[in-house]
Amino acid sequence: MAKLGFPYYSADTDRFQDIKIKRLKKEFSCTGYAVYQYILNEIYRVKGCYVHCDENMIFDISEYWGIKETLVKEIINYCCYVGLFNKELYKNGSILTSLSIQSRYTNMCKLTKRKTRIPEEINLLSEESTENSDKSEKTPIFSDKENKNRIEQNKENPPSIPPSDEEESSISLLKEELKTISCCKEDFNYILNIHAIAEPQSPIWKLIEEVKESRKIDFRLTADSYLIPSIRSLVKAGKLTIKQLPDNPLDAMMMQLRNLSISEKDIEIISNLAMGNYKAVFTAMQEVTASKGAIRIPGKFIISKLK
Hints:
This protein is an all-alpha fold and 307 residues long. The protein is built from 14 helices and 2 strands; from the N terminus they run H-E-H-H-H-E-H-H-H-H-H-H-H-H-H-H. It has helices spanning 19-47, 55-65, 69-82, 87-93, 99-111, 144-153, 165-180, 185-192, 204-217, 223-236, 249-259, 264-274, 278-290, 298-306, and strands at 51-52, 95-96. The chain has a two-stranded antiparallel ribbon. Helix 9 (204-217) packs antiparallel against helix 10 and helix 12 packs parallel to helix 14.
């Protein structure tokens, strides 16, 4: 099989004058540019002209630069927003590429006397620009093994009570909406574990729309900074309820503490004070929920109950 990637690639010396790069750096500082360059490197190293950005790649980037996966997703979305990557290809197939990337790839193929292999469904170049392409061989984006992996990655844990057709349709729609605003896997599962969260009168629809509108303007409202804190506040106020808790009492306690928007520092203190006495913690949490916001610092309140 012919090699697709390259051991090195060229870079424009005027790239720092590119308004798209300037916007990226202004919005996400050097971290944004670092993530963008990591992706460019993977594009040219592996496939040459594109990359399938799945959850594994998101993790690899976050692990390499020591940042949160949610931040990686926000940076990628912003790169699409300003035009560094093609927005439609990423939205419809998690493919990261662009006209400039494919153009540079074509030039590199000519210099190394290779046939260009850009899959038809993602080709952004004109026919004249790809006259050196291998017409006799179609290059699929995903191999059979990769397609199988994608299917496995896209499976979600089913709810404990089988939903009706109407409920399932609403849940499917909610899943798609959460994906469009780059909701991370942990928050994704948390939201789907809330009772009646996908019903038409659920407050989540308005919150999602506010995040989507912000993405068109300034990206100030995100899933991580706005949607999830708002949902946790509604749970804390008793306006939304969790459907089920983990079987392990420690995991159940930790989940409920986070649902109450308690800081990780206070959660650690509570865990140390509890020493296996989870009943006392659950009793205190019930008091917090029953107060409907009257207890303004739930972490300190629970700690006081355990001392």
